[in-house]
Design brief:
Blueprint lengths: L1 E5 L12 E7 L6 E8 L2 E6 L4 E5 L9 E7 L4 E2 L1
Antiparallel strand pairs: 1-2, 2-5, 3-4, 3-6, 6-7
Length: 79
C-alpha cells in the first residue's frame, strides 16, 4: 500500500515556494525497499528510508500529476 500524504489534492505553489511531497508505504508480507516519486510520469526522486519525502523549489506555474510507487523487498510494486 502506498499513498500520498501531502500535499492535498489541487494544492498550489508558485515562484520559489517550497513544495513538499510525502508518502506513506506499508507492506503486509515484507519490507519497503524504496518509494519512487514521479512528476508527470518522470522519475524525480527515490527514497529508500521512511519518512518518504521529496522537496523542490523548481516547479513552474502549471498543473502536475504526482505519482508515488512503492517497491517491496521481493520486487512487487504498487502505485
Amino acid at each position: 500500500m502506498v499513498a500520498v500524504s501531502a500535499p492535498r489534492t489541487s494544492s498550489a505553489y508558485g515562484g520559489l515556494t517550497l513544495a513538499q511531497f510525502t508518502a506513506v508505504a506499508k507492506d503486509k508480507d515484507g519490507t519497503i525497499a524504496r518509494v519512487e516519486f514521479y512528476i508527470n510520469d518522470s522519475l524525480v526522486k527515490i527514497e529508500r528510508y521512511a519518512p518518504y519525502s521529496w522537496s523542490t523549489r523548481n516547479l513552474r506555474a502549471g498543473w502536475y500529476n504526482l505519482k508515488v510507487k512503492a517497491v517491496d523487498n521481493q520486487g512487487a510494486a504498487t502505485t
